[in-house]
């Protein structure tokens, strides 16, 4: 059997563990071959192949990123993209294609599956918003990095009596913000799940600093949005910046707090450090388990499925149960973030 | 309402997060009081109380250990222990008692509950073998520490062409060994779940080193046992050491490998470093959620229960579903450890 | 003897180690008392005192920030500031005053010393630009944090074929940029010591990406400046942003590279995380040694001196040898950064 | 010019940074070739060569160990060893040989230099006892690892009221013990520089626990020795263990303390984790600078020298100033360890 393999979308720590899992298990347990494609779906379209053997995956477990490279490219939305993909897969005699990616990649996978290709997806996204699985690859490491940053900001906030605003990733869901906020002991956590009222945030901080505290940590997900009816000024601040610098929401929040409270307020935008570097053990284990499960699925003919973890167990979930859905932070966790503020 | 709180059994990272969660939520959400007892059940028996307010839990989130202290003491097996406990709880007018601990503490809790005390338990054990919950406090940090050690041993093993044996904690279950083994890319993982055959381990290593490798990592849980019928010499080696030094199983395994293969073989016994230091974000979040859930349970009169996490959700599990049971590593995870070796 | 103690200027990791060193050594070796002042020179001026005993310094060694608090306040430039300081010192019967701080604090110390107060300074600055000492407290931790960030950006840059620009602290000297740049394997390091030519940077990156590479890391010190005669556009970009967001130089550099090369370019501004969190062992040891040396100096009447480390040894350096000077990165180190690019 | 390169003796983090420094600088600055020898002097004797180009050193900066492998082999003490070395060097037309190693390697280098080979040495040893340089490669990372372990033991010692004995590396000098002891806030540090009196240690701990403390950390260098006239029992305990398990001194110290004080006492032997894993930025920078300096020395014909760092500067030191000498911990640092206990 010839198993194709690609990584698509934004990179994150743990991808190499999944690649290693696929290769070791396919070769060792089944004697199958693994054909990698470079730079995501683009490499499939262009026939950019890299056969993967044991020596290619030596020492990659603790290394972030993806040894296959990645790119944002969707075959079904490019002219001739789908044909090019199918041509390559036939030319390379691929019996099943494993793609490691987020929303977009899984969506592309379901389109390619509709064209008759046996597909298995492995979920990765530091935002952790893929439906059907407790965890996606990369999320856990991102929470660790964000918590480490909050820990560091904590001591300097306290020494200087400052409000520290820290913007973390999370476009459609606030998993990183809420988890790192709880772990780092943040006073305020703004997540996409709950449009925020800047007036309320300001009132809370004023009250806190009047009562007993001299500093505060405010964690803002990049996808946090002001509630309707919030102060106009604030809404206008948003979107002032271009593509190269992240931080527009965080910057607006920090500016409002500074202006309205008079507190010494500073912004930190964590940005790309959240998606790089050595994966945590959890992400390495998750990638390894998903890689093994994907090969087992391919070998047993279970396709159009995504690997998933629920509690202690690994499952296979049909594409149509997960495609196009966003997994949001549960109410209980949001409440813990609030109550421990 | 007056909520009592204690930490029992061996300490681990994340206990302070749970204490903080109990205190912040009890005071902030309900206006309840929290009365801590020092050094576990011993402090209850001796009336060693420490009322807990907001200032006691400042900055404890990233700190390992337990600010309440702990001790191994079981009221039901001490002469007059149970009476002393009940006397103190009455004197302190405790309406519900939250105990954070492992097997032993939960067992003691069920005994005290039988005597009519409203009890809620929060599970902690770096061994992760408490039934009914995916995770217990402390386990996640221990896996991180063990993986970090394996990463370090990896580079030195490779540079020197050595077999590195590393003994990790796990008396009745191999959660740390299996997880750290997968995360660290170990070649052999010996866990209590599967009695091992030292002959087979030696054959595997000889074959591996003959084929292509020049080094190997062998992870041994402290509770790993040789299969019946294993070589006598080996069994005799076990138990040679006293109480102060850990390492008997690992030492026996390392000695056998060294003697029979002639490979340059070294042993590292991780020991107590696995239960100390800054908790990972996961353990801080787990402790925080459990602390909040325990207070909610106390407030709503749900007692004789243990907090538990399953997948994304926090649950309450009755004592009689968990007491006296050991949660073992699932077959799928053991298989991932084997197949990726 | 009554020793006064304050921390001034920006906070950083390792200050608590120095405070602990002063207190433990003064109390233990000499039986002296230590009187802390809260929030730097401001606290001296306002008589905001906090006597320091053994219990105040328990467990502070691994904690970032300063337990005394800090503020940017210079007694000699405030109306009546100097008188207020002298009044407090007399009222508190301070025999010698130890101040832990950077340039500004040392300058203030020399002014106060001129007014007859026995002063000893301990240098701290993450920028490491204090003359007369190999290391100042806080620098070493900052380099570790910046290197960790570059390591993380490295894997994501490589996976996505990107240019990653990372702005680090360093207003007048490029110690962090050069050290973290070498440690992280950066391709370009821009430091205040050498005004940079953006054309040359762009040419270098184009050549590198044409020749063999698909990604690059560019480290920019916040105090890096374009050489005279650089492209006007570039110079105009500078200073566009206000006080709340750092990143003006880095942003300008990233924008120029993106525009002129067409490479996918991203900016990360590390900001305040560089001055917080657990100090490295090196900063803890440095703080401890400086604290002990400062007390010895006070006890033996050696004043108007700054503690310093040179190679393996701790020295005392007169204020007038260090005041108003900036220590720059040596040529050899700049050359290593270049040659290993 | 053809530069030979080898790594000898025990491995440690930072060796790859030095190899990378040699290769990048030799190729980039001078156009020289670099010929690696595998497994130290053994590879030279056996003609086991590996030419080193840019692709060999990609991404090695954060990786521990040595990509060239290492072995303990001294050409001058093996029969025909010296002839074999000279034959290989001639056959490979090596113009200068750079060896990265500790005492033994530098000693071998001086012997080979006497036979007419242009030699340059780069010092590495986690023990940091090479004379003539403030730092040797690997030491700094080892101190970080040991301090991290002490931090972890600290919280568990405190929670359980225990004495924690931790044995660290350091055969002839106590650099790791003293530095990690200060950084970790240890109560007792036993180093080879000062033979210890176990009676005094026991008295100190008894006094401390009687006065105010409930726990203690005792750091023991593996080369610490009891003072003459110490209790016989103790001396007899030493040397009970074989080669596979480290820990004899630590074990003896822990057993004595347990027996004589009755305190709950535990031993941790850090062992091989101290010499593996990702190097700290300091070790990466040190390796990089030494690699560049060694190539410059070779290019300018300065041979029979060792690279060294003193304060901020890199120097070249003649072999005869360093060979056969042990650099001990200075008195001032020992005193800081004592006074802050």
Quickly list its features:
homotetramer; 341 residues; alpha/beta; Rossmann fold; 2 domains; seven-stranded mixed beta sheet; four-stranded parallel beta sheet; 11 strands; glycolysis (chains A, B, C, D); PKF_sf (chains A, B, C, D); magnesium (chains A, B, C, D)
Element layout with pairings:
The structure is a homotetramer of 341-residue chains.
Chain A (H helix, E strand, L loop, with lengths): L1 E6 L7 H16 L2 E5 L2 H7 L2 E4 L28 H11 L4 E6 L1 H12 L4 E5 L15 H22 L2 E6 L6 H10 L3 E3 L7 H14 L4 E6 L10 H6 L10 H14 L3 E5 L11 H19 L5 E6 L2 E6 H4 L8 H9 L2
Parallel strand pairs in A: 1-2, 1-4, 4-5, 5-10, 6-8, 6-9, 7-8
Antiparallel strand pairs in A: 2-3, 10-11
Helix pairs in contact in A: 1-10, 2-3, 5-6, 6-12, 7-9
Function (chains A, B, C, D): Catalyzes the phosphorylation of D-fructose 6-phosphate to fructose 1,6-bisphosphate by ATP, the first committing step of glycolysis.
Subunit structure (chains A, B, C, D): Homodimer or homotetramer.
InterPro entries (chains A, B, C, D): ATP_PFK, ATP_PFK_prok-type, Phosphofructokinase_CS, Phosphofructokinase_dom, Phosphofructokinase_III, PKF_sf
Strand content of chain A: 15-25%
Categorize the overall geometry of chain A: elongated
What value does the average pLDDT of chain A take?
Answer: 92
- List SSEs of chain A in N-to-C order: EHEHEHEHEHEHEHEHHEHEEHH
Pathway (chains A, B, C, D): Carbohydrate degradation; glycolysis; D-glyceraldehyde 3-phosphate and glycerone phosphate from D-glucose: step 3/4
Site (Important for substrate specificity) (chains A, B, C, D): 104
Organism (chains A, B, C, D): Luteimicrobium album
Binding site for ATP (chains A, B, C, D): 10, 72-73, 102-105
């Amino acid at each position: 059997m010839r198993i194709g393999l690609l990584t698509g979308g934004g990179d994150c720590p743990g991808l190499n563990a999944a690649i290693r899992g696929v290769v070791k298990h396919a070769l060792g347990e089944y004697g199958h071959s693994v054909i990698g494609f470079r730079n995501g779906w683009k490499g499939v379209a262009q026939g950019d192949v890299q056969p993967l053997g044991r020596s290619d995956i030596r020492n990659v477990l603790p290394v972030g990123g993806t040894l296959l490279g990645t790119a944002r490219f969707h075959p079904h939305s490019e002219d001739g993209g789908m044909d090019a993909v199918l041509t390559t897969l036939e030319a390379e005699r691929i019996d099943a294609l494993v793609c490691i990616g987020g929303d977009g990649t899984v969506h592309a996978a379901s389109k390619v599956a509709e064209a008759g290709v046996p597909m298995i997806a492995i979920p990765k996204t530091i935002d952790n918003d893929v439906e059907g699985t407790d965890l996606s690859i990369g999320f856990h490491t991102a929470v660790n990095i964000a918590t480490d940053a909050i820990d560091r900001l904590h001591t300097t906030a306290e020494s200087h009596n400052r409000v520290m605003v820290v913007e973390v990733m999370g476009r459609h869901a606030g998993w990183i913000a809420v988890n790192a906020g709880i772990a780092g002991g943040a006073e305020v956590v703004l997540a996409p799940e709950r449009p925020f009222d800047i007036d309320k945030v300001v009132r809370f901080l004023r009250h806190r600093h009047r009562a007993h505290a001299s500093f505060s940590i405010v964690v803002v997900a990049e996808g946090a949005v002001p509630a309707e009816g919030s102060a106009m000024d604030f809404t206008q601040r948003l979107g002032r910046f271009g593509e190269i610098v992240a931080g527009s929401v965080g910057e607006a929040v920090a500016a409002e707090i500074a202006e309205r409270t008079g507190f010494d307020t500073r912004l930190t935008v964590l940005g790309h450090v959240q998606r790089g570097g050595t994966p945590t053990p959890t992400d390495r284990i998750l990638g390894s388990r998903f890689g093994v499960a994907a090969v087992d699925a391919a070998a047993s003919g279970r396709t159009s499925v995504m690997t998933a973890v629920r509690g202690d167990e690994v499952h296979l979930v049909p594409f149509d149960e997960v495609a196009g859905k966003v997994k949001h932070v549960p109410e209980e966790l949001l409440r813990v973030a609030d109550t421990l503020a």
